[in-house]
Request: fold
Amino acid sequence: MIPVLTRHREAPIESIRIRLAAILLLAFSVLPVPASATGDAGKPDVSRFQLANGMEVVVIPDRRAPVVTHMVWYKSGSSDDPPGKSGLAHFLEHLMFKGTKNVPAGEFSRKVAEIGGQENAFTTVDFTAYYQKISPEALEMVMFHEADRMANLVLTEEVIAPEKNVVLEERRSRVDSSPASVLGETVAALLYKHHPYGTPIIGWEHEIRELTLDDAMGFYKAHYRPDNAVLVVAGDVEAQQVLALAEANYGRLSPGEGAVPVNTIEEPEPVAARFAEYFDERVTTPSFERYYLVPSYQTGQPGEAEALDLLASILGGSSTARLYRKLIVEDEVATSAGAWFQGASRGLTRFGLFGRPRGKHSVEDVEMAIAKVLEDIMEHGVTQEELDRQRNALVKSVIFERDSQTTLARLYGTVLSLGGTVEDIHEWPQRLAAVTVEDINQVARKYLRPHRSVTSYLRPKP
Amino acid sequence: MIPVLTRHREAPIESIRIRLAAILLLAFSVLPVPASATGDAGKPDVSRFQLANGMEVVVIPDRRAPVVTHMVWYKSGSSDDPPGKSGLAHFLEHLMFKGTKNVPAGEFSRKVAEIGGQENAFTTVDFTAYYQKISPEALEMVMFHEADRMANLVLTEEVIAPEKNVVLEERRSRVDSSPASVLGETVAALLYKHHPYGTPIIGWEHEIRELTLDDAMGFYKAHYRPDNAVLVVAGDVEAQQVLALAEANYGRLSPGEGAVPVNTIEEPEPVAARFAEYFDERVTTPSFERYYLVPSYQTGQPGEAEALDLLASILGGSSTARLYRKLIVEDEVATSAGAWFQGASRGLTRFGLFGRPRGKHSVEDVEMAIAKVLEDIMEHGVTQEELDRQRNALVKSVIFERDSQTTLARLYGTVLSLGGTVEDIHEWPQRLAAVTVEDINQVARKYLRPHRSVTSYLRPKP
Reply:
């Protein structure tokens, strides 16, 4: 899931990806600590409904402040872009701010801003989401407008060309201006030989240029429908009150006709280790990255994703992890080194390792040092002590992260958009607690194998 | 263009590819030598017609023996497979032998065999072709049946499952049983990050399994129509007689409705050098290959493909070429080494280098030796002497290769299926003669650059 945030321009796509991976990992830990530790009292009192037209509704009470987060998630993202139309889901996300047959362009955003609210939207490979952070009284207003633009979007040729320029400029600033992002696009294409996750969310430039009003309306009609949407409301609200508002606003929309088109392309089994090397004059420090194709929470055998999450923490989630201790503290070969696992994904996902050399060291030195750390795990396995420690660190971060209403809403939206359930989320701490040393060793040996990997070197142009 | 020959099982897909590259290169040289050398008398008396329904007809007289080659080419191949339906064009090619509403399955093949004729079919990324080699009297019969199956194919569920097993077995024998082919699939996916040339012609196994009767009929209806077909007849025939037969048989077919669907996906510019490494216990000698993404005769600037053809000859087309002399004769580092260029391709194509180490030498030694040969060309360029020598060798092969009627028919079919003209073929020797040393140095420096390349190592499993 590489999210493309529409309006927030400050960060390049690559950093956002890593940031989101962290958010998702931490988001899972927003959950209550296992029942054994806190009892059921720690479980948020989450309600879930389904409207007659198929739209799912999740309400997460959070009464610390008079604030509400309202999100609508469509279970369609860039991997649903038709072939040759890369960037379409993201382009439509931009166009969703262009007005409806009931309200002119900009009015919804203006109303949110007037009451001091915030709004944004993002597109990932799997889904597209729109959200507002507002005071509780404004919930009805945002629901009216969000429901309105789910059914009544109006696009004209006049808005297509300028908005395309905005997206092209976004591509230049996010991708072209960032050597890591340029390389990242190649790496994604190498990791996914066949699956559309190998295509950039923002789209290839030459295809963005050719996107039309008809393309956008086609995607809108096929995917923007209540039976393909999840409403998440978190904050100072009552479930029944939210349900009543949802029924009044979203409930009156007709469900789409026929089934929602779903991308069913599967990635074939990987066979060969792959590498990419990119030289760019804007690079000052070289860097090493490796991705492994691994199962996600959605595709893996029971327990595999949990074990991969813990393996990432043990390898490189923090300064107490193996990569940090070995590469940065002991060998002084790197200035940064770590590991991450992108657990939430409709299809096969990524386990990542990265490092930047320090001083006179090369990316090859970093690669070799990381390989040694991996080898040690393959041969001797992880220890019970570090599993307990890293799992405990996750549990502690629960308390820390519980503060963020947005993170909470985002977690439920992500899991439900991927076809998961509230129970999947609530039972996650118990499932994490059940992971053994042997489970972790097994996923490491099964998935962190060369033929499943893409290694990339980002280097200064000589 | 990686052709998948349907019936001939003897050779794995990889060798056939290289063989076809050679055929196409040589096929071009079946052409008369430049007018300056032979006068117009050397030009075959080729006739070209277009039927009212849009079907193109090419007749190539060749009266040395009472033999006729009859080919029908559809300008659609595996790159037209719908996403998630890889292998469909090739599967349909198999199913085209299953009978029509007029004749039962096998009757057409039986009639060809009865008169001692030969038949076959093949699918490439760009086109699909069916051909028969027969005596002139049988031309009417094969035209009747080929036209009949262009319009009247009948498929039933009973033929789908068994034929799918035949294709799956073909995949096992062509790809899975050949380490080079297994690696080749990954390499294609790496070279084409976005374009469907990155998908195997025969299809990914899990997608072949899901192909249905409806998929096959859908592809058939969309692509098998006279306005998407080229008829090539070579042999002991008169143009007017062929035209009359073509009008009687193919001319009565209705043109398709609307435009033929054409894959318009373009490959983005490459940015990063890519590598793949594959270990297989069945490999006895390791091997090195490198592909560069380069323009084809169809996509390049005028003269570029001609220069790339000559560059391939100079580098490694024969035992007088640089790679052979340096790696095999002088340094004794390799047992084989060469270069090839796949000139005929609707989209961006491949320039290949390869080598197998000798004795104790490694693939890295071979790679380094090839790199030195390339470096020398980049720095000092090719010489007029070797350009003249290699061009002359091509001209000589004209005389040698003119013998093959099939090669001749295949050349015209290939070029016309790719949207080229008879003139493109006839003027090729003059265009080849116009290539200068500077032209060759320019394409070498422009296209044989690391960021355009995929390097692969095939190694024995340790």
